[in-house]
Specification:
Length: 277
């Protein structure tokens, strides 16, 4: 049995990574910063899915520095979730993460865990430069660049979820502008291939891509239909930031978007029920 630390365990990508390893019978220490009363019901729903596992333990982000890192196999840090989520304390989160990495490095190379950073392909990744600087010198560290990830629990501020929620045109345009539209992956396809990704190459930087051509556009057309052209001024060019790993996309866009819609409907019903309490 291995032990993993997942930083961002109640976010989007981090939650699915946590769930995947728990389902494999591994131990997971979850770290998160979700403290908004508005999203409390979402965190509680996620706790119901993973919190019952005897292999899972949770700590808030401000307790991260207290963890004994010498016994952990791999630490996953979801910068993707920090960027795509709604939080007003990014500097604090990054500071806590950097402090933890530096603490791990002081244990010596033999006791330093593997670090895996989930990084968005596009966006203002310069805000994470201190994290990238801190993993310099850790030979086993990897940076996995993710295209748009979609599926159940996608954040409200991302374009597919915004479209499903039928937000205003300005909100959807803003979401698309902050998102990589060159490619997309369904969340479970990504996590199911994660272990293969980590063993596929010795390269430090790995960019994931879908085995389905034009994946993002196919999903967007299912959501926005004929209005799609009004949201996208011009297509974005594909970006290469590392060695390419093609994820086998078992979930086709129609089925993936249908699952996201179904999950969105359930969450909205839950939100309405909570308002009545």
């Amino acid at each position: 049995m291995q032990t993993y630390i997942v930083i961002g365990t109640y976010q989007f990508v981090g939650f699915h990574v946590t769930q995947y390893f728990l389902n494999q019978g591994e131990e997971v220490i979850g770290i998160d910063w979700a403290d908004s009363e508005a999203s409390r019901y979402i965190m509680e729903e996620k706790e119901l899915e993973i919190g019952r596992s005897s292999n899972y333990i949770y700590f808030p982000i401000n307790k991260l520095k207290l963890l004994d890192s010498s016994q952990q196999d791999t630490v996953f840090i979801s910068c993707y979730d920090i960027q795509s989520g709604k939080t007003g304390k990014i500097d604090f989160l990054i500071g806590e993460i950097v402090y933890f990495i530096e603490k791990c490095k002081k244990n010596g190379s033999n006791q330093t865990p593997n670090f895996v950073i989930f990084m968005p392909i596009e966006g203002d990744v310069s805000i994470f430069q201190s994290i990238l600087n801190s993993i310099e010198g850790i030979d086993s560290a990897k940076i996995i660049f993710l295209p748009t990830i979609y599926g159940p629990w996608q954040p409200e501020g991302m374009s597919f979820e915004a479209g499903i929620n039928q937000l205003g045109q300005s909100d959807i345009k803003a979401a698309i502008a902050n998102e990589y539209t060159g490619d997309a992956l369904f969340i479970t396809d990504f996590v199911n291939d994660l272990e293969a990704v980590l063993t596929s190459t010795s390269d430090r930087a790995i960019q994931l891509c879908s085995s389905i051509d034009d994946h993002w556009n196919k999903c967007a057309k299912l959501i926005f239909g004929e209005t799609m052209d009004s949201f996208i001024s011009q297509p974005k060019t594909k970006i290469n930031k590392g060695s390419i790993f093609e994820v086998h996309s078992k979930m086709d866009p129609e089925e993936g978007i249908a699952l996201q819609r179904k999950h969105n409907k359930r969450l909205n019903l839950l939100k309405e029920w909570r308002k009545r309490d």
